[in-house]
Amino acid sequence: MLIRTTIRLGSYAVLTLIMLNACSVQSYQAKPINTAEISAKIESKNPDSPAFGEYLHQEGYNKQPFPIQRWGVDELAYCALFFHPNLEVARAKWRAAQVNEQAATEKAMPSLNSQIAHSNNANQDISPYALGLSIDMPIETANKRNLRIENAQHLSHIAQLEIAQTAWQLRHLAVQSLINTQFNQQLIQLLTQELTLKTQIVAMQQKRVSLGMSSNIELSHAKLQEQVTRADLQAANQQQTVLLSELANHLGLPLPTVTRMSLQSYDDYLNPISAQLSLENTHSAALLNRLDIRIALIQYATAETKLKLEIARQYPDITISPAYAYEFGNHVWSLGLSGLLTLLNKNKVAIAEATQLREVEAAQFEALQQSVIAEVLTNHAKLTEAQQNFSQQQSLNAQQAANTQRIEKKLAAGEIDKLEFSFAKLEQIAAEKNLALAKFQRNSAAHQLENALQKPLATAREKSEP
Predict the structure, then answer these.
(1) Which domain holds residue 215?
(2) For the chain, what is the mean pLDDT?
(3) How wide is the angle at C-alpha 64 spanned by C-alphas 61 and 65, nearest 5°?
(4) C-alpha span between 224 and 202 (Å, rounded)
C-alpha cells in the first residue's frame, strides 16, 4: 500500500510540474514575408505624408513649413533617417541585444529527475518496486552571472552605437549624392550654353566658307568641337538620372518622388560655416566623437569582461542534488554534490585565448586611432587646398567676365565681328566650368572632413572658436 501511495504521489508531482510548465508555454505563430506588400510599401513612401511631418515635429525641426519645399542637408538627412530601412535593421539588432541582455540575468533553473523500476526477484519480504526522485539545484560561483550580464550590456551598447553609426552613414551618403547631383546639373546648364554657342559658330563658319572668307579646315574643326560638346551634354544628362537614382536609394524613396523634389544648394549649408576649422580642434573632435572609436573602446571592454569570465571559470559551478529513493522496500534519503573538475587544468587554454583577444582589441584600437588622425589630417589638407583653388578660380572667372564685357563693348562699337565675340563667350563658359569644378571639389572636401569628424561642420566650428 505504501509503495502504491509513494508511486502515486511521485506521479502526481511530476504531472503537476508538467502542467504548471505548460501553462506558460508560448505557441509558434508563422509570419511569412509578403514581397508584394513590401514592394507596395516602398512605392508608397511620401515625404509629404503626415507621418513624416509628425516625425519632424518630434525631432524639433522648424526651419520650413510642412510639406517641405526646399530640400537641403538637414531635410535630406531627416528624410533618410525616417524612410531608409537600414536604420530599422540596426534598431532590430539592438532590440535583439536587449533581449540577450535580459537573458543573461536569468539564473540556472533546477531540474527534476525521477525513475521507477520493477524487479522479478521479489518475495514476501522484498517489494518488487523501486522509485527515485531527485532535484538538481545548480549554483554559480565566482560572480559568473554578473560577468555574463556585464558582457551582454557591452554588446547591447555596441548595438545602440551602431544605430547612430548607421544614421550618420545615411546622412553622409545623402549629402554626397546632393553635392554630386548639383554639380552635374550645373555642368548640364553650362554645356547647354556651350553647345548653343558652338552651333552658332558652325553656322557662321559655313557662311564664311560660302563667301570664301574661311577654309573648310576651320569649318571641320568647329563641327568637331560641336560634336564633342554634344556628346558631353548627352553623357551628363544620362549621368543625372543615375545620380538621382543614387540619391533616391540613399533616401529610401522612389525615384519619381525624388525627381519632383526641389533640391537646395549645398552652398547654403557650407557658406555660413566658411569651413574654417583649426587642425588641433578637428583632432580632438574626431577622437572624442567618432562612433567607431567609441565602439572600439566598448569592444575592448567586452574582451576584458570575457577574460574575467574565463578566469572565473577556473572555479567550478556546484550542483546540489537532494534525492529520495524507495528501493525494494527500503526508504533512502541522499544529498549529492557535483561540479566539473576545472581545478585540474585551471582553464588555462581559454584564459590564454581571452588574453590574446584582449591584446588584439588593444592593437586594433591603436591602429584605428592612428587611421582616424591620418584621415582628419588628409581631409583637412584637401579642404585647405580646395579652398585656395576655389578662390583662384573665382578671381580668374571675374577677370574673364570683365574681359567678355570689354569684347562685348567692342562688338557694339563695330570693332569686332560676332564670331570673335562668340569665341570670347566660349572662354567665359570654360572659366565658369573650371569654377564649378573647383566649387564641387571644395564642397566634396568639406563634406569628407565632416564625415571624418562624424560631426556637422557647424557644430565642429563652434567648438573650435574661442
Answers:
(1) 2-18+72-464
(2) 88
(3) 100
(4) 10
In a domain, 208, yes or no: yes
Neighbour-count burial of 1, counting CB atoms closer than 10 A to its CB (0-12 exposed, 13-18 middle, 19+ buried):
exposed
Number of domains in the chain: 1
Residue 270 CB-half CA count within 13 A: 23
60/76 Cα distance (integer angstroms): 15
- Listed range (250-254, 311-315, 325-329, 370-374) with the worst mean pLDDT: 325-329
Mean pLDDT, residues 2-14 taken together: 50
Q: In this structure, is residue 260 part of a structural domain?
A: yes
Whether 44 is in a domain gets the answer: no
Going by the DSSP 8-state scheme, the letter that residue 140 receives in this structure is -
Nine cell digits for residue 114: 525521477
Average pLDDT (242-268) is: 94
Q: Are the CB atoms for 145 and 107 separated by under 8 Å?
A: yes
Segment 141-151, tens digit of pLDDT: 999 999 999 99
Residue type, 318: I
Q: Which residues contact 400 (CB under 8 A, 6 or more apart)?
A: 427, 428, 431
Kindly give the pairing relationship between strand 318-327 and strand 111-118: unpaired
Residue 128: CATH number of its domain: 1.20.1600.10
Give tens-digit pLDDT for 81-129.
Answer: 999 999 999 999 999 999 999 999 999 889 989 899 888 876 667 788 8
The mean-pLDDT minimum among 20-34, 63-77, 220-234, 361-375 falls in: 20-34
Residue 214 lies in a domain: yes
